Amino acid sequence: MTFDARALRDAFGAFLTGVTVVTTHNEEGAPIGFTANSFTSVSLDPPLLLVCLAKTSRNYATLTGAKGFAVNILAEDQKDLSNTFARPVEDRFAAVAWKNGPFGSPVFANVAAWFDCAMHELVDAGDHVILIGRVEGFDNSGRTGLGYARGGYFTPALAEKTLLANADASLLLGVVAERDGEILMVEDGNGGWTLPFVEKAESEGLEALEDHVDMNLGLILWPGLLYSVYEDTKTGRQHVVYRATLGKGAPKSGRFFPIQAPPLAEISDSAVRDLVKRYAAESTLGNFGVYVGNQEKGRVHAVAAKG
Ligand SMILES: Cc1cc2nc3c(=O)[nH]c(=O)nc-3n(C[C@H](O)[C@H](O)[C@H](O)COP(=O)(O)O)c2cc1C
User: Fold this and answer.
1) 5-154 architecture in CATH?
2) 294 lines ligand 1 (CB under 6 A)
3) Which of 5, 62, 72, 166 has its CA 20 to 30 A from that of 242?
């Protein structure tokens, strides 16, 4: 059976992916790389991943003959890099800060994650070749990845960030900040625990939260997606809570608690208690919803509802 290639490609493009740049060095030792969204994680033990390379690529011989390659998962603000590595630009690497990874292939600064791989297997597949890499080293920054679907980029966390920057009222910004299976809680001033909250001025966006966590807790915060929006009808304050990941280091104040064992009895704010409980339940499956309501009553909206 033959299909119209364009129609088939458009249908494949309905699948939402991230965007990566695959890199290695050529025989002269110069870095080479190309944009690829055909990345898939394959196996944990042994640690394997794959990416599909078109046989028409100018780098086909280099990549299929390489001892290894790296996969750089682009962050939301790296659209330009994706374009540079997809076009016939003279020196693609002039546009990016990079270094050699532990196995020797170029890894980029400020990406969501990178994997430096040894070549595990090449699988011939029609007009592409599947490069299967064995992970020899990796880094995961916690940044939200750049999205790609139907030929266009999407940036969910950046879009929410813009939305927030345009919210004209002052409100309380909170965060469920996770690291290695634990969430960070801070003292509530009454001997109990709560989430980090900061008052956002009209002119500020999500950076108010990043600065607050940096200054008061001494940790780098990578904000992710929206988690909860509620008004405390007793105080009349609007609360907007985001999910986030935290950088390395010990917090200057506050404490990490296992996601599945938060100090519920010591959280006096019922809205925060319910939120932390919901986070524990949802994080086992990763099916996070967004709560909209007030401190007592509201609805959790599914982010990706099943049909
Ligand atoms: C978002 C995006 C995803 C892409 N994914 C792939 C891919 O998975 N495999 C591939 O061979 N080319 C892919 N391409 C196309 C290559 O990046 C493009 O053809 C590039 O110019 C190849 O460079 P080269 O010929 O120097 O290797 C993609 C392009 C874009 C913009």
Assistant:
1) Roll (2.30)
2) no
3) 72
Question: How far is 79 from 89, CA to CA, in rounded Å?
Answer: 15
Q: Is the CB of 54 under 6 A from ligand 1?
A: yes
- Residue 159: what are its φ and ψ, rounded to 5°? -65, -45
Q: Cα(241)–Cα(271) distance, rounded to whole angstroms?
A: 11
CA distances (Å), origin 111, targets 103, 135, 144, 168, 180? 18, 17, 9, 32, 19
Residue 223 · residue 157 · CB < 8 Å? yes
Mean pLDDT by runs of 10 across the 307 residues of the chain is: 91 96 97 97 98 97 98 96 94 96 98 98 98 97 92 85 69 93 94 94 84 94 89 83 93 95 94 92 82 81 52
Q: Check if 57 has its Cβ closer than 6 Å to any atom of ligand 1.
A: yes
Residue whose CA is closest, atom 7 of ligand 1?
A: 36
* Burial class for 66, CB neighbours closer than 10 Å (0-12, 13-18, 19+): buried
CATH code matching the domain that covers 156-302, chosen among 3.10.129.10, 3.10.180.10, 3.90.79.10, 3.30.70.260: 3.90.79.10
Substitution site in 25, 37, 122 for ligand 1 pocket (most atoms within 8 Å of beta carbon)? 37
Name the residue type at position 11: A
Q: Whose CA is nearest to atom 21 of ligand 1?
A: 86
Atom of ligand 1 nearest to the CA of 38: 8
Pocket test for ligand 1, best of 25, 35, 55, 59 (most atoms within 8 A of CB): 35
Contact 71, 22 (CB under 8 A): yes
Q: For the chain, what is the largest distance between any 2 Cα atoms, rounded to a whole number of angstroms?
A: 71
